Amino acid sequence: MRGLVRAARTSQLSRRSLLGGATLGGAAAALSACAPPAPPAGGAAALKLPDDLSDTEKVVRWANWTAYLDYDEDTKQYPTLQAFIKDTGIQATYSEDIEDNDAYFNKIAPQLRGKQDIGKDIFVFTDWMANRVIRDQLAQPLEIIRMPNASNLLDSLKDVSFDPGRQYSLTWQSGFAGIGYDKARLGREIKSLDDLWQDDLKGRIVVLSEFRDTVALVMQSQGVDITQGWGKAEFEKGVAVIQEKLDQGYIRKIKGNSYLEDLKSGNALAGIVWSGDLFILRAETENDNWEFVIPESGGTLWSDNMMVPITSTHRRNAMTLMNYYYDPAVAAQVAAWVNYVCPVTGPRRSSPRATPSWPRARSSSRPRTTSRRRTSRASGRSRPRRTRSSAASGRR
Fold it and tell me: Which residue, among 95, 71, 34, 85, has the nearest Cα to 336 in the 3D structure?
């Protein structure tokens, strides 16, 4: 805990979108708030790109977060990725390497800076880390003219401040941080953080080690407008609540991706969680009583972005794959499985499940940060088999 607090205190909380629990609206309108401010202007050196071998080496290697692509439990394959391979002849490999923004970046950054191949042609980072990757010149520019489907990106995401004009990145998915709980086992509703810190949940709560989400929710419950006008004092007051709830025994664990294991095992009944994970949890446990709610005081909104590492020698193959996933029909198939907010315009019309009604976000001037995700395949958890009827209903 001490190390997490120390790390959190040394950086700004993030550019957050404020999500009012009582106000409903389209998530598309909220996504204009998903970008941190522009990196400092300056005389950046011209990028020296490696030779692109896409014409002779028909491969593309993709690192992503866990449970973030449509998956068939029977065939143990990713249907849309298999279709891409069949359609293009490019052999795509997919690995769930990303547990946390900082951890993955710190693992690969020395190799990238040393111009050493990391064995990946696409990686996926949240806005704030994408900002850092682009600022440090660790991503290759995209040739949008060769990616006609990129025009399907939501208008609100086309000119984000960390990547004006989308020269280096394309959004993969967006989502929310809020409260998740088993309504049946708890026997009551949770609408606020005050509802979370009750004796019947003592020792049964997990919270995200990504303090940019956890503390943001606490700050909002304290009446702080996280979109403006807060500073060190407000942040430390939010951190103090987390420490207090740890000391009092309410919080069982502070975790990254593996927090879902505590919920699955029953060791925890509630927590501060990421939106799509609760729908994965419903499918895996066959328990429709898992609820995700935006607290009445507000939640947070984030986006993840696909980029090409500076050392990749298959840039155009990577661009071909990105372009493929921006086809509205393909994007709809992915959105229906992962249950996050799709950045592609078409699926919002063609797939009702890709168009949930969410609390409206408000833009912020602070740099947006968030990390996420789910437990790794190495943890031994099985994947859900998704059908049209198994996608979670009742998203808030």
Answer: 71
